[in-house]
Write a structure and sequence with these properties.
Length: 108
Amino acid sequence: MVRVFVDDGKRLKKSECEWKDIQLKQLDFEELRHKIKQEFRDTIPNIMDDSLNLRWTLVRFRDAASLLEERGKAGEIHSTESLEEETQDSSDESDSEEQRHRNSWQKA
């Protein structure tokens, strides 16, 4: 599942933005683009037409609530390969954060 937030540039917080959860059979950029267009076509007819203004933040599900509140790393995703690369980068960051958290508990 991918949670997609959309913002017209007028919102200050992600909690104010429209969002939808999109189910995917596999992690595939073209399928994701298609599903985003399908889900938002009624409210945002030209969604995904201007890829320069798209910002992507990939997070693990259990960390999503806290990470998506008001921050996140934006990455450029233009293909399945770059989507997988961002997924790996996000996983690596989360793993190192978990290790730091475990180490801080062990020191206490």
